[in-house]
């Protein structure tokens, strides 16, 4: 099976935190997925360093739109890796992708997408922010890819619909934080 990454999973260093095996750049297959676009509307609760209150952080999400496609990467994964990714992406719904351009496989392709109404950010939420460190994580992760892939990826998320907030953050949910920020290697 494969997982389609369109946010932090595009970054090998970020993705590595959810894998026991060592990932290589060659494990990431750049693709176009039909029927989806990237949007800033996935709310996660975080705590920024130096603050006591939980903040609504807004991360990239996918939204269905049959008229467009968006780029990202495919990673071939095992059942065990899929289970770890479910913990990392625990507030997202796991959905099957049906149409990947110029990529043929008999295996299933999944992605994680926020679908719960309580986890979809509304632009009227004045206490929601896009973490600047997340944007940097996305941009740093694009280094190994082609110029065209990078440009299209950045263009696909450059309409920031929420203010950007600087600073380090942790997810308020300890399980999510472990699999997204701390990583599996800390278990050993």
Observed structural traits:
single chain; 188 residues; alpha/beta; 9-stranded mixed sheet
Task: Please describe what this structure looks like.
- With 188 residues, the chain is of the alpha/beta class.
- It is 24% helix and 36% strand.
- The protein is built from five helices and nine strands.
- Helix 2 (79-88) crosses helix 5 (174-182).
Question: In one word, what is the shape?
Answer: globular
User: End-to-end span in angstroms?
Assistant: 27 Å
Q: What Rg do the Cα atoms give?
A: 16 Å
Poorly predicted tracts of residues: none
Kindly state the percentage of residues in helix. Answer: 10-25%
For the largest beta-sheet, the strand count, sense and barrel status come to: 9 strands, mixed
Topology:
Elements: E1 2-5, H1 12-16, E2 29-48, E3 55-76, H2 79-88, E4 93-97, E5 100-101, E6 109-113, E7 128-131, H3 132-141, H4 147-157, E8 164-165, E9 169-171, H5 174-182
Parallel strand pairs: 1-6, 3-7, 7-8
Antiparallel strand pairs: 1-3, 2-3, 2-5, 2-9, 4-6
Summary of the model, kept short:
The protein has helices at 12-16, 79-88, 132-141, 147-157, 174-182, and strands at 2-5, 29-48, 55-76, 93-97, 100-101, 109-113, 128-131, 164-165, 169-171. It has 188 residues and is an alpha/beta fold.
């Amino acid at each position: 099976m494969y997982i389609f990454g369109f946010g932090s999973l595009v970054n090998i260093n970020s993705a590595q935190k959810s894998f026991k095996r060592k990932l290589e750049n060659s494990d990431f297959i750049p693709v176009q997925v039909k029927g989806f676009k990237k949007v800033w509307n996935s709310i996660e609760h975080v705590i920024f360093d130096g603050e006591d209150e939980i903040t609504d952080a807004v991360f990239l999400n996918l939204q269905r739109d049959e008229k467009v496609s968006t780029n990202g990467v495919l990673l071939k994964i095992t059942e065990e890796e899929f289970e770890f990714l479910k913990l990392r992406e625990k507030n997202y719904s796991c959905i099957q992708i049906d149409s990947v351009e110029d990529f043929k496989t008999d295996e299933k392709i999944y992605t994680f997408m926020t679908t719960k109404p309580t986890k979809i950010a509304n632009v009227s939420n004045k206490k929601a922010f896009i973490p600047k460190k997340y944007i940097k994580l996305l941009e740093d992760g694009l280094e190994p890819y082609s110029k065209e892939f990078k440009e299209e990826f950045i263009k696909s998320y450059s309409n920031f619909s929420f203010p950007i907030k600087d600073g380090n953050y942790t997810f308020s949910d300890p399980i999510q934080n472990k699999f997204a920020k701390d990583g599996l290697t800390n278990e050993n």
